[in-house]
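Suppose a colleague, Dr. K., hands you the sequence of a protein chain of 354 amino acids and asks what its three-dimensional shape might be. Before reaching for any lab equipment, you can write down a predicted structure in token form. Begin with the sequence itself:
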Amino acid sequence: MDHLQGVAQELLGFREELQASNPALYRDLALYLQVLRDGLLNAVQQACFHLATRFYPDRYCAMAPQQRAELQKRLSLLVMRSSSLLTVEQLAQLAGQLVQERQLQRQQRQQEWLAQLRKLGEEHGEAEQPTDPEGSIQLQVALPIDPQRWQALVDAPAMHPQGEEADGAGLEDLLNDSDDTLLDALIDPVELGALPQPWNTPCLPLDPQALLAWLEGFERALQRLLRNLSHALNRELLRLELSRSLLPASLLQAALQGQLEPQPAPANLLRLPLPLSPESGAELDSVALLLRPADLELDQPRLRHCRSRLQRRRQEIRRMAEQHRRVQRRLQTLEAERLWHQDTSSPPQDPPPP
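The predicted structure, expressed as tokens, is then:
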């Protein structure tokens, strides 16, 4: 019993350690975002400069003075609006919303998958009616689902309710996901408007594993906000006829996740070869803005220094989370042993009368 209490006290020590270090982590996060806000407009202007002078100089020269002035005004306005969301609190809220969105989409994909299985089962049952006398036992070695149709279901891309392709693909993504498992989606449904743990509190988590998940969600939220800003900027560039095409936000997200192989381009620009038509086989280079944290940090030494401090803190939190997981598992083992000995040492009770 004393050993069990010692392990529980060890878990409490993790909370006390984070309670002492979380204020400094918050200050580092806030400083990173402050430096990012200060240099964001210059980074956007630099990327647009390369776009206008290197890729589309003819289009920029053809713009009227009023259009060029409007371009600079719109760039500043969009960056200013996005900068107001670059705070620790706003990104934490966005991180919770992204997790909620992902879980809801997974539940919807699971329901669609189960509906497809039921449909396939019904079709299979209608196609193979038993011919043996009633009461006969049928032994079959064939699968109840057509393997070809099953494979088509596995390979089918999952779609968002809005019609956009989801981050993952079909059944394989549903069953093999590193962030949220199918079991989590089944036993812990998320209600609309209620942010999931650990983003539903204004403070940083005091559990090392929850804090590590919080930091990962923070990074995803930052990436999503920069992606949305990039998409809005690209819409303005297309409207003012400086750009020739508009890449969808899902394509920008795929580039951020490393699912595409872009052509070499200056920082915060995405250059992709797009096929003109299947018959011609020709390609057209499409260049768009894509603000990436790595590109922003590369061009801003102070921001890069802030990132280094955050990485050191994250490594320490990851080490602490691994230790916390082992101690937590040991505590569960000791608690199970205590309950087992308690159950086996107590006299058996007679079952209640029927």
